Amino acid sequence: MFTAASFRVGDRVTIRSGQSIPQSIATVERYTEGGRCMVLSDGSEWRADGRRQWGFRGSYYKGPVVEPFEQGDDEFVARRRVVGALRKFGDGLTMDSALSTEALQRILDAVDKEKAAVKKEG
Fold first, then answer.
1. Which of 60, 63, 41, 59 is nearest to 51 (CA)?
2. Do 25 and 13 form a contact (C-beta atoms < 8 A)?
3. How far is it, in rounded angstroms, from Cα 40 to Cα 17?
4. Which residues contact 15 (CB under 8 A, 6 or more apart)?
């Protein structure tokens, strides 16, 4: 459990989804509301303990949380974003796409080269 004292201005933090999956990396910029609200470098505001949890009629919604940065979080976030961008790119490809055949072939060649390198390592 994290408290308001767990985070200092300038600390790198990881915003994790409700399933504890790293979503993004940010830095603690400042505290407001007498130290009760933490403002991150991405502009988001959080309770000083890193939670956004609230109660409603006896039940709780647990959404994303802020936790101290751990080694490997930035690599996970970067990989997740790259995979998402590649999926979006691939999903948008059609025969009518603006990219030339040569450009598409260069992309395919790079993918094939990376796949071959992984096979050699494994």
1. 63
2. yes
3. 16
4. 22, 23, 24, 25, 26, 40, 44, 64, 65, 66
2: CB partners within 8 A, 6+ apart: 49, 50, 51, 66, 67, 68
Alpha helices in 4-100 (DSSP H): 73-91
Nearest residue to 13 via CA among 54, 41, 37, 43: 41
Q: Per residue in 71-103, pLDDT tens?
A: 999 999 999 999 999 999 999 999 999 999 999
Q: Which two tokens stand for residue 56?
A: 């409603």
Q: Which residues are paired to 63 by β-bridges?
A: none
pTM of the complete model: 0.74
Helix (H) or strand (E) holding 13: strand 12-16
Tokens of 118: 């992984």
